[in-house]
């Protein structure tokens, strides 16, 4: 396969407009957990921060002067509103049909997912920021048993149905007692007013969801299965939450699925179990599978990398892999040849193109055939050139690289604008802070 990145790939790091998000502890050489979120609506760009502050900015104010988005702003714009979410604000979605209009308000609702003591999901009026509803997922998954970020109730995914104004969410909580490790999780269907229509509860760890285009099915990927729930993928009927079918890579251990993506009647799956990519038909029938970062022997070590993200659209599928790990040791100086890589395939599993994303991708943003990969550090290489927002065309592989001084950890995109969160980073063997905590905005050509 041809590598999409070359010296001819456009780089536009100077064209980001920037709004400060305040202070955050710099990341170190290793990547950290999800600490930020960004979301785009027709009128707003909304940023969620680790301290719980959620800020909504007018898109017009952030998209610069007459030269277009990405031009430098003379003055940082005032936000439309700012709210203090009950927990760390780590996920954002919007509901077009949510809520009733009042006092000149709007029917649109901004939904924020939290990681914290309550695992709160809350809906905010898009016009005013007023809280319309709140649901604490800790009531279902339980309260944290230790004062550590890994034990906090965590809303890992949100999916909004634009046609119905309904919302789907997945929350989880981890606990450990000696050698006993447990997950508690719930998948929710919410009405637009925050009323829970159904719950789907398991003792596994959900990591990703995707809603079918017709709104009738919800795919949920489970990363860790160490209890009674022993399958990596479930597909639920959205009206009632009824289980339609399941699928699993059939591998040993508790690692199963990293991400899922609907494309019509098919579901693409990034498998943590065997480090492969799959395309499944109705009922979970396997259409094809491809090796992505399967265990590979290098210099006497067996190395692998997890396929962490997948996006499928119009018969094409792209997978993104993450960090290198060694089977027999915690540390390794070697790198898997397919770590930090994006690879695309057609409906017959024929390779289309691939490229090195170079740094860890916390989350893949997608709009149709447009893919946006916010790339953070690569802790084994520690090269600041990995700090970037990379854009791809799913069909052709055409790429653009937006360089950042800090690490890119979240992104959102639509037909006109790309927004990303930059976080500062301090490598453990350097006495330097690179980048800042900021919302970056640029135009799309």
From TrEMBL:
This is Pyrrolo-quinoline quinone repeat-containing protein. Transmembrane segments: none annotated. Gene3D superfamilies: YVTN repeat-like/Quinoprotein amine dehydrogenase. Residues 81-246 form the Pyrrolo-quinoline quinone repeat domain. Residues 72-84 have a biased composition (Basic and acidic residues). Residues 1-23, 63-84 are annotated as: Disordered. InterPro entries: PQQ_b-propeller_rpt, PQQ_rpt_dom, Quinoprotein_ADH-like_sf, WD40/YVTN_repeat-like_dom_sf. SMART domains: PQQ (SM00564).
């Amino acid at each position: 396969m041809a590598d999409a990145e070359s010296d001819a790939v456009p780089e536009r790091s100077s064209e980001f407009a920037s709004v400060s998000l305040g202070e955050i502890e710099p990341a170190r050489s290793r990547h950290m957990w999800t600490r930020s979120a960004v979301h785009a609506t027709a009128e707003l760009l909304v940023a969620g921060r680790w301290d719980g502050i959620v800020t909504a900015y007018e898109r017009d104010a952030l998209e610069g002067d007459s030269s277009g988005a990405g031009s430098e702003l003379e003055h940082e714009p005032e936000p439309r509103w700012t709210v203090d979410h009950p927990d760390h604000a780590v996920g954002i979605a919007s509901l077009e049909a949510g809520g009733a209009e009042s006092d000149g308000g709007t029917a649109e609702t901004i939904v924020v997912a939290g990681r914290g003591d309550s695992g709160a999901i809350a809906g905010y009026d898009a016009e005013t920021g007023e809280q319309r509803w709140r649901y604490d997922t800790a009531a279902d998954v339980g309260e944290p048993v230790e004062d550590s970020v890994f034990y906090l109730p965590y809303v890992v995914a949100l999916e909004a149905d634009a046609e119905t104004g309904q919302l789907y969410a997945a929350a989880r909580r981890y606990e450990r007692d000696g050698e006993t490790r447990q997950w508690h999780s719930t998948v929710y269907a919410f009405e637009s007013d925050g009323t829970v229509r159904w719950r789907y509860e398991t003792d596994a760890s959900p990591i990703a969801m995707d809603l079918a285009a017709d709104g009738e099915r919800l795919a949920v990927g489970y990363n860790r299965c160490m209890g009674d729930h022993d399958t990596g993928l479930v597909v639920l009927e959205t009206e009632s939450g009824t289980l339609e079918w399941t699928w699993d890579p059939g591998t040993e251990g508790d690692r199963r699925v990293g991400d899922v993506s609907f494309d019509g009647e098919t579901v693409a799956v990034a498998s943590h179990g065997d480090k492969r990519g799959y395309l499944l038909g109705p009922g979970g029938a396997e259409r094809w599978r491809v090796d992505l970062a399967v265990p590979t022997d290098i210099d006497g070590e067996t190395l692998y990398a997890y396929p962490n993200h997948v996006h499928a659209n119009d018969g094409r599928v792209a997978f993104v892999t993450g960090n290198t790990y060694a089977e027999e040791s915690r540390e390794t100086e070697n790198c898997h040849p397919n770590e930090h890589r994006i690879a695309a395939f057609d409906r017959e599993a024929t390779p289309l193109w691939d490229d090195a994303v170079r740094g860890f991708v916390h989350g893949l943003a997608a709009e149709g055939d447009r893919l946006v990969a916010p790339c953070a550090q690569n802790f084994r290489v520690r090269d600041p050139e990995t700090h970037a927002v990379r854009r791809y065309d799913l069909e052709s592989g055409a790429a653009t690289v937006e360089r950042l001084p800090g690490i890119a950890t979240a992104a959102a995109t639509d037909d006109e604008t790309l927004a990303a969160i930059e976080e500062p980073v301090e490598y453990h063997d350097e006495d330097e802070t690179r980048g800042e905590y900021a919302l970056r905005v640029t135009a799309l050509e």
